[in-house]
């Protein structure tokens, strides 16, 4: 089985590239989906987050993701505390689903991990594919496609390692600043290198 790490900056279109990997036959496991599942009421993560941050971060019996997100994007200490809770649990979730994929005969498994470099996870992947767009395009996409205020979009970028620095660390870079078809062509050229 080939294990590939997929990452990129917020607003870079990593989910689009993950979908293209699926189209090529890879099993794609999404760390954001892991987080979503782990936030469910009654889970260990839910209890730990409520214990660490307080009941004001629970709304209608669920974690108030918007409020918690606002806190951690603007407070490095809170971000570090949340990461200390979530990262080990997300790694467990991903490992369990990778084992399931292997048992079901998967030949290529892609881990879609937004904060792969920030979390120090690059060493566990034999190969990392990085989805790149220039920083100003990241901001524009976050504002236009996600409806975020520009200051919030820039705060999100500031909470991550600079995109150019991440690009320089990856073995393979997919430039997603053009058309969807141009991105797909890059991935199709890359696929034989990743799977041989």
Walk me through this protein's architecture.
The chain has 196 residues and is of the alpha/beta class. Helix content is 56%, strand content 15%. It contains 9 helices and 7 strands. It has helices at residues 14-23, 31-38, 44-53, 65-74, 76-103, 135-146, 150-158, 163-169, 180-195, and strands spanning 2-8, 27-30, 58-59, 62-63, 108-112, 127-132, 172-175. Strands 2-5-1-6-7 form a 5-stranded parallel β-sheet, with helices on both faces. It has a two-stranded antiparallel sheet with strand order 3-4. Helix 1 (14-23) packs across helix 9, helix 2 (31-38) packs across helix 5 (76-103) and helix 6 (135-146) packs across helix 7 (150-158). The protein is globular and about 50 Å long.
Looking at this protein, list some descriptive labels.
196 residues, 56% helix, five-stranded parallel β-sheet, single chain, 9 helices, alpha/beta
Please provide a brief summary of the model:
The chain has 196 residues and is α/β, with parallel strands linked by helices. The protein has helices at 14-23, 31-38, 44-53, 65-74, 76-103, 135-146, 150-158, 163-169, 180-195; strands spanning 2-8, 27-30, 58-59, 62-63, 108-112, 127-132, 172-175.
- What Rg is obtained from the alpha carbons, in whole angstroms? 17 Å
Order of helices and strands: EHEHHEEHHEEHHHEH
CATH superfamily of the domain at 2-26 and 106-195: P-loop containing nucleotide triphosphate hydrolases
The name of the CATH topology of the domain at 2-26 and 106-195 is Rossmann fold
What form results from the Cα inertia axes?
Answer: globular
Report the biggest beta sheet as strand number plus sense, adding barrel if it closes: 5 strands, parallel
The CATH architecture assignment of the domain at 2-26 and 106-195 turns out to be 3-Layer(aba) Sandwich
| Relative helix content | 55-70%
How does the helix and strand content classify structurally? Answer: alpha/beta
The counted number of beta strands is 7
**Can you identify the CATH class of the domain at 2-26 and 106-195?**
Alpha Beta
Low-confidence stretches: none
- Rounded to the nearest angstrom, the distance between the terminal CA atoms is 11 Å
Mean pLDDT figure:
93
Strand order of the largest sheet: 2-5-1-6-7
Q: Beta fraction of the residues?
A: 15-25%
Total number of helices: 9
